[in-house]
Amino acid sequence: MNNLINLRTLESIDKDASIIAAKLFLQQYEFWHLQRSSYESWNTPTHLKSPIDKTSTEKVAKVYLECELRTKTLESMKLTNENLSFLADVLNLRYIKRYKIKKACEVLAESHNLDYCGERSFNRYQKDALWKFAQACPYNLLIKKNNY
Length: 148
Known about the structure:
- By secondary structure, this protein is an all-alpha fold.
- 68% of the residues lie in helices and 0% in strands.
- The protein is built from seven helices and no strands.
- It has helices spanning 7-11, 15-27, 29-42, 57-80, 82-96, 101-111, 119-136.
- The two termini are 28 Å apart.
């Protein structure tokens, strides 16, 4: 219960800083995914001796966890409601699939039957999506306001 945020606590959250934290967190997906792919390529029957020894199992587990934190949070957002599903798609296109904004706009418009999705609208969707992701992610991305 301590990990859950109540509405009073939400008022003490720095929304802009939390959005930046979520963006940085999602941008790291490419690194973790590359690490995961590398481990998986060594875990095949064609490789007789893997460079991964038993002492690095914790590292491999961390790599898998880092990937899953990002993808599973997006999956849970998709299952919550139509609006969050749309926002999860925005983040998936930008940070998991690594599409440029123009390509992401085209795919988003096509997949959600929109007449058009401009870059400015996409940026607004992305900012909202990052805020929702920061709230949904089990890794604490919510940054408290500095009250000096």
